[in-house]
Amino acid sequence: MDRGFFQNVEKSTGVKQDDIMRLVKSVQSADLSNERTVRKLIHQVSKMANKPVSKKTEDQLVRSIMNKQIPSMNDLKKKF
């Protein structure tokens, strides 16, 4: 990926490129049909971005991901 992309993400979220890459690697090997795994990933992202996720939003994200209806970046921005 373009270094500029990561600079923009870091600027807007405070999340470093290395942290993003570690997350990407963990998602690639994760079983997204397992609710516990999906919730764990949501908590990791929330902690990395220092953005709390309400129980309601977490439940909506879990349902969407497990139903293979991955939310777009625009949809995620609206939730936070």
Automatic annotation (TrEMBL):
Xref: InterPro entries: SpoVIF
UniProt xrefs under Pfam families: SpoVIF
Protein name stated in the entry: Stage VI sporulation protein F
